[in-house]
Structures are given as structure tokens and as C-alpha cells.
Amino acid sequence: MGRASLLRLAAAMVLTGLVSPQVAVAARATPPLPVLPIPTAAQLAWQRREVIMFFHFGMNTFTNSELGTGAEDPALFAPAALNASQWMDAAAAAGASLAILVAKHHDGFCLWPSAYTAHSVRASPWHGGAGDVVREFAAAAHARGVDAGLYLSPWDLHDQEYGREVAYNEYYLAQLHELLTGYGSLSEIWFDGHKDKNATNMTYHFQEWFQTVRQLQSSSIIFSDAGPDVRWVGNEDGFVGTTCWSTVNRSMITIGATGIENYLNNGDPWGTDWVPPECDVTIRPGWFWHENETAKTLSQLLDIYYTSVGRNCVLLLNAPPNTTGLVEDADIARLREFRAAITRIFGTDLADGSTARASSERGGDFAAGNVLDGRDDTYWAPMAEDGRRDGYWVELRRPARARARPFNVVRIQEHVALGQRVERHEVYVDGVAVASGTTVGHKRLHRLAGPVVGRTVKIWFAARRGPPVVSAVGLHLDPHEINRPSQ
Ligand SMILES: *[C@@H]1O[C@H](CO)[C@@H](O)[C@H](O)[C@H]1NC(C)=O
Ligand SMILES: *[C@@H]1O[C@H](CO)[C@@H](O)[C@H](O)[C@H]1NC(C)=O
Ligand SMILES: *[C@@H]1O[C@H](CO)[C@@H](O)[C@H](O)[C@H]1NC(C)=O
Ligand SMILES: *[C@@H]1O[C@H](CO)[C@@H](O)[C@H](O)[C@H]1NC(C)=O
Ligand SMILES: *[C@@H]1O[C@H](CO)[C@@H](O)[C@H](O)[C@H]1NC(C)=O
Ligand SMILES: *[C@@H]1O[C@H](CO)[C@@H](O)[C@H](O)[C@H]1NC(C)=O
After folding, report:
1. Which atom of ligand 4 is nearest to the CA of 248?
2. Do both 404 and 340 map to the same domain?
């Protein structure tokens, strides 16, 4: 007899007075088996950050460029009033719990006084050559309760050894070692696969670099096209396609190779490795500050949020400090508006007061009602039924006052700690289909064609490899979406 049948028998025995309830609670419903691959604790924590910050600042800021040559004079690096604490105002305004600094971009100029090159802040007039932007950045972040991360460009247009395999890999690793050991705890290391097609050929020893991160900052997330922890999404526009699996086969991805964008964007439903995508995008047209540019509108940023965070990604948003060494007040104000809008939309759940039922429930700890409790660590799990792939559903029954509470956004979240499973889903309000899609993952947001009212909201699922485990269903009203075309 299966555990589920035992549970039903126990319940029946309690009802018929054959045994005392104490005996019945002993036969507790088990959680479902995970579906491999599953995220590590660090990957889960990273996913739940949802929005993180990027700061591109360096030689390009002072040459008004996006890509330097490597021949820039360090004397050009002269921020008049650099204040990394002010950068954290930007991170805090965006509600970001992690900020990543570009410590060295492709031009090779180092924002810290590396012992392995003369091409760094040490040769600049800033603080008479005694400054260290990485130190100020890490200290400001940690003082503000923001985790710090660093980007160190593999492609280096300055270093003379670039192109000599062993010599340059040693140089890169020596610098990585400085960053990993000199600035306290680091939560993400960013390995950019980009370089020009006509750039000098160079074989990077990514595995040696990654293992060094593991050794020196064991809980840090490692980003590259191929992970190992999080992957590039295949574009720099702040969106992922409507199908987004956190899983890929790492062995199919060559870092920096062209033609892998589509695979990175979709992921692989049968992927053997958990490597979720991160959407990097900049708040302005450029990654570096240019006087002639301004921040994206609130509406553009919200679109980006829906098509990144709302499709199972983490959004990595860049805000470039200017030549003074400060993030523009206007950019910080835009970030604050962005966060305020997210709080306004998602701070109120119009599913409040609803009850939930489902196609099946496996018992107390895994009841359908868990999708309404606002917690990531509780979830609805149906009974295990071998071989079944679709026809799972959860239904919210809203209270009578729901008639006065229209919504135009539906939020669905899988409990991805147990793996990503949903391959198709449909949303019905009082029996009328209002949205549908493929994957869900950590978070899936649907913007509806317009505000709807209704007493019942039913979500139907088809799931791979195992039944769906759903941690949340939420209903929200986005005032910015009213009167906008649907998507
Ligand atoms: C640096 O920025 C922080 C945060 O905005 C601010 O409190 C501090 O006064 C600034 N420091 C200077 C020297 O302006
Ligand atoms: C790099 O190597 C490839 C193949 O080995 C070759 O086709 C290409 O021309 C080289 N590029 C440069 C810039 O030397
Ligand atoms: C590579 O090509 C780009 C144009 O595609 C050019 O601007 C750049 O100077 C070239 N770089 C090198 C190192 O030849
Ligand atoms: C990834 O690996 C799985 C398991 O070996 C396999 O089923 C799947 O086809 C692979 N994906 C691709 C795109 O080859
Ligand atoms: C702003 O100026 C930079 C540097 O001259 C240029 O590359 C960029 O295209 C300009 N941006 C816009 C939006 O015109
Ligand atoms: C940089 O931004 C700060 C904050 O908005 C501003 O005070 C300063 O004038 C800006 N610098 C330049 C060169 O625009």
C-alpha cells in the first residue's frame, strides 16, 4: 500500500473513530521528489534577488567611448568627486541586493592598483595614484548591506602578453586572485565572453579561473555564457523569449561563440545542468556614461522587468557613473520610480482572501492554499501519479468583494528548489481563457489585455518529468498597463 493510500486510510480511521488523531498525524504526506537538475543554495538565493545592479565606469567614461583601444593615457582617469556610497544610493533606489563593478573593461585599465600592471589607477592623478575604486566600491556596498560582485574582462587590449596563452592566462589569474582575496566577500564574478572578431586569438583557461573562484570565494555565483552557475541570456536588451528553461547542457556552450544566442535564450527542457539566465541591460543607450544620453523611461524599464524577471530571469541593470564619479541624480530618480512602481503593482495581491483548491492535493504541508501564503518555501504539490503529464490545475475562489477588485497581471511561481517542470500553462477567469504560455520557472508574469474581474481564477498545467510544484499565484493591478496594447 502506498503512502498516499495509507494517509487516506488513516484519515478514514480517524473519521470513523477507529484510531485517535495522534496516530493519523504520524503518517505525514511526504514532499515530492526533486526533478534533476536542481539549483544550489547560492543559485536559489541569486534567483530570488530578481533585480541586481551593474556599474560600468573606467577609461571609457573619460574618453566618451564604449570600447577603448588599450592605448589610453592613465592621466585621463580623473573623477573629480568619486563617491561609491552615492552609487549605492542607485542600488538602494532600485531595490538591488547585489551590485557588480566592472573592475577592468576590454581596454585593460584596472580600477584597482594591481601589482601586475602599470596600467591602473596607480598611474592616474586620482588621489595622487593612491586610490582604489574596487576598495571604495566593496566597502560602500558592504556598509550599505548590498552584496558586491566584480567583472574582470578576459579580452584585454592593453596587455602585451595578450595572445600568448600561458603568459596571459597567468596574468589574468593573478589579477583575479587579487580581486578574490583583497576585497572581502564577493557574491558574483562576471566572465564576459565578448571580444571583437578581428581581435588577437587567445585561448582562455576558464576552468582554471572558475575553480580558483570556487576555492577563494566558495559561495560566489559564477557568470559566463556557459555558467557554471548563471548564463548569459543571448542579448543585451533586457529580455528573454517566452520559453525559458533554467536548464541547459553546459557542454553544448562554447563561451564567446556566435550562434549560441538562441540556445542561451530558451535553455533546454532536457538540459542536464541548472544554469539560469541573467539579463544584462543598461539604463541608458550606452554601458558607459555619455553626456548626450539619458535614462530609459519608466515604461521601458517596466517592460524590461516583465520580460526578464517576469520570464524566469534575473535582471542585471547598469547605471553608469559620470566623469565626476557619480551616478546622475536623474538616473537615481528613475531607478526609484521603477522600484516604487514594482512595489505599487506587486505590493498588493488581489488574490488576498481567496481560497484555493486543486486537481489533487497530497496533504497538509502541500495544500493548494500554499500558493496564497506569500512564501517561496511553501508550495502546492499534487498527488504523485505515474506517467501523468497534464490536466493538473489549481483554482482560486475569490471573495464576493472581488467584483470590485479588477486585475490585469497574473503572477505564477514554481517552487524551483525542486526543479523546473511546467512546460505549458493556461489561465482562466470564470472559465474564460485570458493568458497562456509555456514555461513558468521562478516567476512568470502575464499582462492581460485589460483589467478583468472574476470570482474564480483557474490555472491549468502540463508538466515535464514530474507533477508541478507551485509556490505562488498572485493577481495584481498595474495602472501603467491600463489602455496599453496587450502582449
Ligand atoms: C557620498 O555619498 C553618500 C551617499 O549619498 C553621502 O551620504 C555622502 O555625504 C557623500 N560623501 C561626500 C563626500 O559627498
Ligand atoms: C584566429 O584563428 C582562426 C583559426 O585558427 C583564424 O581563422 C583567424 O583568422 C585568426 N584570427 C586572427 C585575428 O588572427
Ligand atoms: C577590429 O575591427 C573593428 C571594426 O570592425 C575596428 O574598429 C577595430 O579597430 C579593429 N581592431 C583591431 C585590433 O584591428
Ligand atoms: C541535452 O542533454 C539531454 C540529456 O542527455 C538530451 O536529452 C538533450 O537532447 C540534450 N540537448 C541537446 C540540445 O542536445
Ligand atoms: C552619445 O555620444 C557617444 C560618443 O560620442 C556616441 O557614441 C553615442 O552614439 C551618442 N549617443 C546618442 C544617443 O546619440
Ligand atoms: C555627475 O552627476 C552628478 C549627480 O547628478 C552631478 O552633480 C554632476 O554634475 C555630474 N557630472 C557631470 C560631468 O555631468
Report:
1. 1
2. no
